[in-house]
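Quick question, first post here. What does this chain look like in 3D?
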Amino acid sequence: MEVNDIYVELAERLKYPGSERLLAILRKLVTPEEGSLLLELPADPEELARRTGVDRDTVELNLRQLVEKGIAIPTSKGIRMARDVTQLHDANLSSTDQWLDTEILDLWKEFQESEWLESMADIGDAHFNAIRVLPAFKSIQRSPHVSADDLLPEEDIKALIRGADPIAVVKCSCRRSMRRCDLPVDICLQFNRGAEYHINRGTGRRLTGDEAIELAGKAEEAGLVHTWPMAAFGRLNEICNCCRDCCVIFDAGLRYGTIDRLLEKSRFRAEVDREICSGCQDCVERCFFGAIEMVKPAEGRIAVAEVDTSRCFGCGLCTIVCEPGAIAMRLARD
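> Answer (accepted):
Ran it through. Tokens below.
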């Protein structure tokens, strides 16, 4: 197979054909020899050596490096190539610094800005609401009308963390490449199989449950939204802590007005007590979704915050930052 054909076939396997920018990423990540090996997966090293004519030691070395770079993924059925661009993006950009230089970060950034955002915004019904917003646990604690009994197990971030083993923290792949904000990078949480993958790969630091809850609290204070990718499929492998500027989901959804198709709202909504609101506008700055505006009441007081519940996703960030305690969460649906 011609060298260029190898990379074209790799892009097709990633379900993203026809992109010169993706081809540039693949050429940076793998040699033609490694690309040929990837196209033979899944197979064990002995079988790969027989098929490719490369000695087994070299095959095993190449496989190990492909796993370290995130383009090959260990599974229960053996090592296989990343299933799509999203998995490649997340796995490669969580790699150790050994495999990431400024050039590859810039290639990913250009790919996201120039074409991937638009394709994510138009992702289609097959992926509708595949990512769930989880309410900040500190916002629930500050909401007198919400009790622990109101939280379902799959939206109680503390319960989710305590029910997982092992747990690890990894670098945020989006902020690592986009570099548009100064929010924390070592902040995204991995659980169970996801944590095992990163711990074994050397890209995740093991945490206790208490350490993970403390980290989740720091993410909330920093202004990051908890999201559970692939929640629709019932698997807890990770909880991302997302910003609006770098995250491909938020950037695409907010820029192209398709955020309702990409994210599932939590069952909670923010509510403002106008009598307590000081008009500081901190909540307006915190809201990713443009759900809060300042409105001057008819009686002539200062402008106070008002929540458009149709636009609120129930993340709770506004509640955390409200010093007077004027904003609280309420259960919006069963």
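The first strand starts at residue 72 and ends at 75.
The mean pLDDT is 93.
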